[in-house]
Amino acid sequence: MKAIQANITTLAVDAIVNAANSSLLGGGGVDGAIHRAAGQDLVSECRLLGGCKTGEAKITKGYRLPAKHIIHTVGPVWRGGNNGESELLANCYANSMKLVREHGLTSVAFPSISTGIYGYPIEKAAQVAVTTVKRFLAESGAAVDVTFCCFSQPDLEVYQALLD
Ligand code: AR6
For position 164, what pLDDT does the model report? Predict the structure, then answer.
């Protein structure tokens, strides 16, 4: 596991993860950037998926992206922390990693799910992200190269402190 600062749409990995909304039809933030970079064929495939519940994950092709696949997951909206947010966020990471395994993928990059428009505090979200992925790798024995792709330098510092 490692953390980097980058635009996730530039990464040539087996899968990048999208912080989507339950419609899976696009939005702002990283979702908007991924849909713009992948092109119109992405939304056509997404229309066939029937949406996605919070904490669940669905996979599509990567289309024009350098990444081969996109795993779309829906993070929780932060409502103060006592509304199941941490469990739902952990489900996003665990269910995305399950898809990585089921599809035989060996590299995946995650954005910091829920910490933009959905308002989840970065320190708390990064803790959930790192803990959940670490546990998945240990329990499954999977050899997957996992990158936490941070958009800002302060976010990168938070992840790096947890990974050291
Ligand atoms: N590469 C990597 N990270 C990025 C990029 C990028 N190109 N662009 C933004 N981020 P957000 P959420 C970071 O708001 O909070 C959408 O409208 C960003 O700085 O994209 O889960 C969806 O459709 C932040 O650290 O996702 C939903 O409606 C992180 O990605 C809603 O936003 C997540 O921020 C989901 O909100």
Answer: 85
